[in-house]
């Protein structure tokens, strides 16, 4: 979104934002694709650079529609990653000058491990629950399938020991 907003004038930004929201908040991929085409057509005269960007890279926005409905809202933004990068920048600025590259790498690695542990304790996306797709059919998610596979595999190993 920032890239699209940086290519248009201040006066066109509210229009660009509303058109991009219509793309990202569409209920299905087909509706989002239609909204994207409408946005490109609407912006061709008022913000041609933004229209060109959306025409060339608009399909990348639609990648989130490959995810289950329950996960789309959280995965369509990069807010968590941006916040993590800000935190890394803040913590490395405190040190100011690192004696060598390895010390910087150790600090960043320890911060990322700490964050990973915090994120794994919180339930950001519930991978254990069954997911309902666009057709209304419920399918188990990857974590459930992996758990079932492990149970089956361990059961087979136990049978082989007899």
Quick structural gist:
This protein is an all-alpha fold and 162 residues long. Helix content is 70%, strand content 2%.
Structural write-up:
It is a single chain. With 162 residues, the chain is mainly alpha-helical. It folds into 3 domains: 2-66; 75-121; 131-160, no CATH class. It contains 8 helices and 2 strands. It is flat and about 55 Å long.
In the predicted model, the low-confidence regions spanning at least 5 consecutive residues are 143-149, 151-162
Number of beta strands: 2
Look at the helices and sheets and give the structural class. Answer: mainly alpha
What radius of gyration results from the CA coordinates? 22 Å
* Tally of alpha and pi helices: 8
As laid out across the biggest beta sheet, the strand order is: 1-2
- End-to-end distance, in Å? 60 Å
Q: Give the overall pLDDT as a whole number.
A: 79
Major β-sheet, in short?
A: 2 strands, antiparallel
Strand portion, in percent? Answer: under 5%
Number of domains: 3
Which secondary structure elements does this structure contain, and how are they paired or packed?
Layout: H1 2-6, H2 13-24, H3 29-46, H4 48-61, H5 69-75, H6 79-95, H7 101-121, E1 131-132, E2 138-139, H8 142-160
Antiparallel strand pairs: 1-2
Helix pairs in contact: 2-3, 3-4
């Amino acid at each position: 979104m920032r890239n699209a907003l940086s290519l248009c004038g201040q006066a066109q930004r509210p229009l660009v934002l509303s058109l991009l929201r219509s793309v990202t908040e569409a209920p299905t991929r087909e509706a989002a694709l239609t909204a994207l085409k409408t946005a490109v057509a609407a912006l061709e005269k008022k913000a041609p650079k933004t229209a060109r960007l959306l025409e060339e890279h608009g399909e990348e926005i639609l990648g989130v529609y490959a995810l289950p409905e329950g996960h789309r809202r959280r995965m369509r933004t990069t807010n968590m990653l941006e916040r993590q990068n800000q935190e890394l920048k803040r913590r490395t600025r405190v040190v100011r000058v690192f004696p060598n590259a390895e010390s910087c790498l150790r600090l960043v690695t320890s911060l990322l491990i700490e964050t990973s542990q915090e994120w794994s304790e919180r339930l950001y996306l519930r991978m254990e629950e069954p997911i309902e797709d666009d057709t209304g059919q419920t399918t188990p998610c990857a974590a459930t399938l992996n758990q079932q596979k492990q149970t089956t595999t361990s059961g087979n190993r136990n049978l082989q020991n007899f």
